[in-house]
Amino acid sequence: MASLVGSRVERKEDKRFLTGKGRYTADINLANQTYAIFVRSPHARASIKKLNIDKALKSSGVVSILTGKEIADDKIGGLIAGWAIRSEDGTEMKCPGNPPLAKDNVNFVGDPVAVVIAESLEEAKEAAEKVEVDYKVLKAVTSTADAMNGDTIHEGIEKNLCFDWLLGDRQKVKEAFDKADKVISIDIINNRLIPNAMEPRACVADFNAASEEITLYTTSQNPHLSRLIMSAFGNVAPEHKLRVVAPDVGGGFGSKINVYNEDIVCSWAAKKINRAIKWVAERSESFLTDIHGRDHVTHAELAVSKDGKFLGFKNETIANLGAYARVFGTVTPTYLFGPCATGVYEIPAAYTNVKAVYTNTAPVDAYRGAGRPEATYTIERLVEKASMELGIDKTELRIKNFPTAFPFKQTLVHTVDSGDYVAGMEKAKQMADYKGFEARRKESEAKGKLRGIGVTSYFEACGIAPSAAVMSLGCGVGLWESAEVRFNPTGQVTVYTGSHSHGQSHQTTFAQIAADELGVPIENIDIVHGDTDKGTFGMGTYGSRSLAVGGIAIVNACKKIVEKGKRVTAKMLEANPEDVEFKDGEFIVSKSNKKKTIGEVAFACYLPGVRDEMKSPLPEGDEPGLKETSFYDPSNFSFPAGTHIAEVEIDPETGHVKLEKYTACDDFGRIINPMVVEGQVHGGLAQGIGQALYENAEYDETGQLMTGSYMDYTMPRADNFPEFNIGYTCTHATTNPLGVKGCGEAGAIAAPPTVMNAVIDALGGQEVTMPATAEKVWKACKNLKKSNAKAA
Amino acid sequence: MKDFNYHSAKDSKEASKLASSSSAFLAGGMTTIPSMKLGLATYKDLIDIKNIKKLSGIKVSGKSVTIGAATKHVEVSNSKDVKKAIPSLSSLAEGIGDPQVRNRGTIGGSIANNDPSADYPSACIALNATIHTNERKIEAAKFFKGMFETALKKGELIEAIEFQIPEKSSYQKHPNPASRYAIVGVYVAKHKEDVNVAVTGAKSCVYNDKEMSKALSGNFSSSSIDGMDLDSSEMNSDMHASADFRASLVVTQAKKAVDAC
Ligand SMILES: Cc1cc2nc3c(=O)[nH]c(=O)nc-3n(C[C@H](O)[C@H](O)[C@H](O)COP(=O)(O)OP(=O)(O)OC[C@H]3O[C@@H](n4cnc5c(N)ncnc54)[C@H](O)[C@@H]3O)c2cc1C
């Protein structure tokens, strides 16, 4: 049987998605359901003086209106940060309470204060307009850079500072800088982004009064984790009385990791009113209340010797958390950011200092890449600048500082098991025709255009992560993953995974893995996920961990099936278990060449006997049935890496940046399905290029979101992109049996610095901030013209 | 969205009779429906005019192209007749919004709405259009009054727009990257007697740039407007483009248009 791993198996999920048969949360309608509308603060910062629901209650069709008071009275818990970070001075981070419905204070536009539940959506909307809230508006804090100088948002949290964290050794860095020939420094902004999943958030909550069970259908990337948080911290229901189902989910990019206010409120309220409640976000609500991403202000420095060796690295960053610290809000700008900020380079001394601040803006949390795009942007912009200032070719300078021996002990935290950065760079250069660039630059010049080329070499820490390691660093949970592989008596297989697919094609990729492990045709394998009532626990899908952690749990569970199969075969064929081999779905006794198919073995496990004889195929000690579970805790992170090269052409008259060429050469370890991987790379690149050239979430000084719709928030479109030129190098991960590393975030991590390095190259080294909009680039072109004129 | 009455008018007369101070005509609905959904506008009556036969279709004579008010953007962009007579008008229509918008939005709706960054108003000015209503004919130069303001009276219905066929013309738009409306759009048309340089997006209302028109009437070459320093004091300024950038773009787009003619 040919191996399925490595081949372009057509996606099992396509039939349902392409024929409109996907079943998303908003498609779910329960008998006798009601509709919820949330009353949200129109102010970025205010105290609630009075909230009057009398008029609204009289509005037609209203079933119930609940506010922050009721939720507090019922002792329903607030939203939490999942990772405890300690400041450099040893103090614990400071987090404000974040009740699901605000009672006393609101802290960003969109913060919910009440929920209106009615017989129809229209009636709920109508009534919501009649809820009267008397706010005392307070001065908002919106700027990341100035947040520490603003009014105190949360009582007791001075300077709006959640923590002031350090990773690395300041003294060693100082010594390295003292010895340096040159110091390259840079001030950069990592612009705030809005994830914009295609499917807006939604939930349907149901309560069964007889069994006292709450079922919550919700747009989550991690239903098991949501249930745990809602039970343990939300006090919504004990875990065994709470079922969380995340059916088809239309994209998450991190924005659907969090348990949100609406999940908790609808679950709690469904029990209170003893009826099902449905809530579906409008797109404007998504803009305002989905978590946002990035939003860093950074000063970084690189100490170099004159021949281009990197000696030391400093990174001083202010990270905006938004109004509250959420699930991955505090780890994103720390452990997901700091360790990767030294990039793919041997740098003997380094530190990263992050001050995480609260502002009156939507909470900021993990968004595709989470911390690693910010890290890569910092180091790769700095390295590019170093190449300009040192006059060393940008690819040569990088190669000079690449590690060549693996495992590579990276400066701050990680030990990278495998990779070949030089090979990746050489291949990328070839794919991009790096040598031919000068000629292309001249051609552009002849047309009155400016052309630039930009390079990024990156690595990322994915496959999060060894539980003991992350818990020692403050993580509230272990980051293992589980799988259950269940044979049916008649030979088909159901695989339950704790990972969740919201666009990642688990149904196909995971089935390919199981098919190879078990020798069962892929058509006979079903992947089940997304329901806490089906299968064991899982931590969910983010951090490019589904395959590298969840996939391995499947492999391990399959291996246990095979082990049992060997024992059963041995008993059936009267051989030694050690003499039984398994290949392509058959158990073969090596000495006699007798065999049993895995289907026969499964059948025997479920029907362990024969007519007229007292005889069992099961060896002593083995139970009937064929089902195995694995909880896999990875031994290390996985480390995808690669080099990307972009070329842009700028029209100096209009400032328009045209992305002419984009080359991505990635090392994702073993590739299970190249077609699926291409999809992941394309999507990541679109988001990364979006950050560099188009997307930006902007608040005004009063905390109103200026980019609250697609009229003003620039989502990139297909016609903004060239054909992507994609290639791979493959060094297998040594830390897991599949040799896989993860591919979901690479594009979003590498593209921003790649594109910006190209833009800044075209602009003769002039800095522009992301996104490189026409006006910013136009201004830079004017400056360039002036300085060129002066020079001439 | 608040409740409203839906009417489908069979002719212009019925449509204008149904009109009141709390009604709107429903053409493509691409402006009306979103503003109702967002609660920015409420109407008691929506009067659908798409079924009025007379309002749709494209006619070309020797001197002019006449487009029915309820003709969709996609029909204008796909029309072989328009492509032949005034290719720039066809490409303008092709550059409006996205396929969904082009498949519903109409030329009459666009002009009646007079959004300061809409594309069609510039075509009307540049191509010396005549707006035919159920009551009268209005010259384009007198039709666009100000931001979202036109010469139309309550209940007056645009029936068709008649464009003068120029010798040469081109429309060049610098789109808002998010919405793809014009940050600045410049429509240059060279007629036998004169040259029009109609500018949209730059100010509160579409206008004919007299300075550039004059320069180009003297010498129809981009060099005659190159480096022109326009007064930006009345130009729009928002998060997508400052007034200075818009002033520069007006000249740049005008030059591009002349070069493309
Ligand atoms: C996402 C999006 C992107 C867009 N991008 C662009 C763009 O790039 N460039 C651009 O120019 N436009 C753009 N538009 C606007 C689009 O062209 C609309 O179609 C247009 O503004 C309104 O036309 P409509 O037929 O949809 O009018 P409707 O929404 O039906 O009506 C709009 C107004 O016009 C009035 N009206 C309609 N027809 C008549 C008539 N015959 N006589 C008198 N009054 C009438 C109505 O009473 C109403 O007040 C965009 C719209 C959207 C939603």
Short description:
The complex is a heterodimer of chains A (792) and B (261). By secondary structure, chain A is an alpha+beta fold.
CATH architecture of the largest domain in chain B, please? 2-Layer Sandwich
The first-to-last residue Cα distance of chain A is 70 Å
Main sheet of chain B?
5 strands, antiparallel
Low-confidence stretches of chain B: none
Query: How is the largest sheet of chain B built, in terms of strand order?
Result: 4-5-10-6-7
How many runs of DSSP E, i.e. beta strands of chain A?
Answer: 28
CATH fold label of the largest domain in chain A: Aldehyde Oxidoreductase, domain 4
CATH domain topology of the largest domain in chain B: Uridine Diphospho-n-acetylenolpyruvylglucosamine Reductase, domain 3
Detailed description of the structure:
With 792 residues, chain A is an alpha+beta fold. Chain A has three domains: 14-19 and 33-138 and 198-251 and 256-289, Aldehyde oxidase/xanthine dehydrogenase, a/b hammerhead (Aldehyde Oxidoreductase, domain 3), CATH 3.90.1170.50; 370-462 and 636-791, Aldehyde Oxidoreductase, domain 4, CATH 3.30.365.10; 481-632, Aldehyde oxidase/xanthine dehydrogenase, molybdopterin binding domain (Aldehyde Oxidoreductase, domain 4), CATH 3.30.365.10. In chain A, a hairpin with a 5-residue loop joins strand 19 (481-487) and strand 20. Chain A starts with 13 loop residues before the first helix and ends with a helix. The model of chain A has no long low-confidence stretch (mean pLDDT 97). Chain B folds into two domains: 5-164, Uridine Diphospho-n-acetylenolpyruvylglucosamine Reductase, domain 3; 168-260, CO dehydrogenase flavoprotein, C-terminal domain (Enolase-like, domain 1, 2-Layer Sandwich). Helices cover 32% and strands 25% of the residues of chain B. Chain B contains eleven helices and 14 strands. Chain B has helices at 12-18, 32-37, 73-78, 80-85, 87-94, 99-104, 107-113, 120-126, 140-143, 210-218, 243-260; strands at residues 5-8, 23-26, 45-48, 58-60, 64-68, 130-133, 137-139, 144-146, 149-150, 158-164, 168-175, 182-190, 195-200, 207-208. Chain B is globular. The model of chain B has no long low-confidence stretch (mean pLDDT 96). The complex binds flavin-adenine dinucleotide.
